[in-house]
Specification:
Number of strands: 28
Shape: globular
Radius of gyration: 26 Å
Number of helices: 1
Strand order of the largest sheet: 2-8-7-4-5
Number of domains: 3
Structural class: mainly beta
Length: 457
């Protein structure tokens, strides 16, 4: 990073009459600069937690998703003296209540001067059976001697336990698309990018929608995106989703309007495949590739919103074949003018960048058949310009009622679940909706019904 100060130990330099230091850069794309090099006396006591540390496999996951979270962090003694009783502690705290929900220790004992210790996992595992909310995890290193630089004694990470969302990020920080050199000169610039979500307990749940962000919509209006979900089994163990290993289980289409901003989260219902009358019913212990696929016949580029907030390098390593052999992945990338023959790489653009592509799920409490006309759903005023009122006069008391408003592109603009509904009046603010026709659907455990309304301004 610009203006970053880096301290590098020089073992064996003490007492030398002269010293030669060589800096070597190996790469073919970026460049770097070094300025203001100082040789200083090494402090005696300085333990640090390095920046290779495991984080949860998702930045957001639904309450009840009990995929275990494992821990690992590399530590280093960057001081000149041996350290005793070295311990690495990890703690997870609920940000809202301040309550600690998990803690564990990895005891190292004696650590020699200038010693790096890598790839030692914690014995304890966190099963995230916790309340919805935001959580902060902290790795902290300690030893007997007072530490010279306490600023490098910790590394932190954050995650969210949500109502219904699997995500590898909490918001866009940049946009991304492949460099032109990934295709031959005459190839179409088709590519696919998404995330791999492992679902431990899918029984009784379905995928209600997919959310994603578009990085350059103004440049490519009226272009189509395929919204695809694959079920994946890595049969050959090469950590690539080969074409014969991925099975399409949900498929939708989104047409770019041209006014989407990179920070906008677009949420679209994606029906199951091949039966588009039903949503995707999730399965237990299954890898799902949730992909945005851009298929074109020219060299016009499409960019996705992405995030560099989370680095999954240590998590992928820890859960991979070298240690736990329970692989968890992050971004998934395919680049080819013919995506049907392209293996999708689980390295993506690197483990430190992931696309804003999310999977939203709901419990199966609704029936996919028409609701009886005895259940009255009335919308007024219609047309509407500001506040839409929905009157529900149901034939019986429903424990759960799910209401969804979609535009003619399949985007979900509003969705909400209501408890214990017999007679209810709901209101929705539509002042920010563009003029046009919309569908409001009411789902119950006896069926669903849809009403159209028109927004005018």
């Amino acid at each position: 990073h610009i203006n970053e100060l880096v301290r590098v130990p020089l073992p064996g330099a003490a007492g030398a009459s002269d010293l030669r230091i060589k800096f070597r850069y190996e790469g073919n794309y970026y460049y770097w600069m070094i300025d203001d090099v100082h040789i200083v006396e090494q402090e005696a006591n300085n333990m640090q937690v390095n920046d290779f540390y495991a984080i949860p496999q998702n930045a957001q996951f639904p309450q009840g998703e009990l995929d275990p979270i494992y821990f690992l962090a590399d530590i280093e003694n960057v001081g000149a003296a041996d350290q005793t009783n070295v311990n690495l502690h990890v703690s997870i705290v609920n940000d809202d209540t301040g309550m600690e929900v998990f803690s564990a220790d990895n005891f190292y004992g004696d650590v020699a001067a200038n010693q790096l210790i890598e790839n030692i996992p914690f014995d304890d595992v966190f099963i995230p059976d916790v309340d919805k909310g935001s959580y902060t995890g902290t790795y902290t290193i300690s030893a007997d001697a007072p530490d010279f630089d306490e600023s490098n004694n910790t590394q932190t990470f954050r995650f969210v336990v949500s109502d219904s969302t699997y995500a590898k990020e909490t918001g866009a920080t940049r946009i991304v698309f492949p460099a032109a050199g990934n295709w031959d000169a005459d190839e179409a610039h088709s590519w696919a990018y998404g995330n791999c979500f492992y679902v431990t307990d899918g029984d009784g749940k379905f995928m209600s929608s997919m959310s994603f962000g578009i990085g350059n919509a103004a440049n490519i209006p009226d272009r189509d995106l395929l919204l695809t979900v694959y079920k994946w089994e890595d049969l050959n163990g090469n950590e690539e989703a080969d074409p014969d290993e991925r099975t399409r289980v949900a498929l939708g289409l989104y047409t770019i309007q041209g006014d989407e901003n990179p920070e906008d989260l677009i949420t679209v219902y994606v029906p199951g495949f091949p039966d588009d009358e039903m949503p995707l019913m999730l399965e237990n212990d299954t890898y799902y590739l949730v992909m945005v696929e851009y298929i074109t016949e020219d060299q016009v580029d499409f960019a996705l919103s992405a995030s560099e907030e989370y680095n999954y390098s240590a998590t992928v390593f820890l859960t991979g074949p070298d240690i736990l052999n329970q692989p968890r992945y992050a971004g998934v990338l395919g680049i080819n003018d013919d995506l049907s023959v392209e293996p999708y790489s689980t390295i993506g653009f690197g483990y430190d960048i992931v696309p804003v592509v999310r999977m939203n799920v709901s419990p199966v409490t609704f029936v996919n058949e028409p609701l009886s006309d005895a259940n009255k759903v009335t919308l007024f005023p219609n047309p509407v310009s500001d506040q839409l009122t929905v009157s529900l006069d149901m034939e019986e008391l429903f424990d759960k009622v799910y209401v969804r408003i979609m535009d003619n592109q399949g985007r979900i603009l509003t969705e909400a679940t209501y408890d214990n509904v017999l007679q209810s009046t709901l209101q929705y603010d539509v002042r920010d909706y563009p003029a046009g026709t919309y569908n409001l659907t009411v789902f119950t455990n006896k069926g669903y019904t849809t009403r159209q309304f028109v927004v005018t301004h």
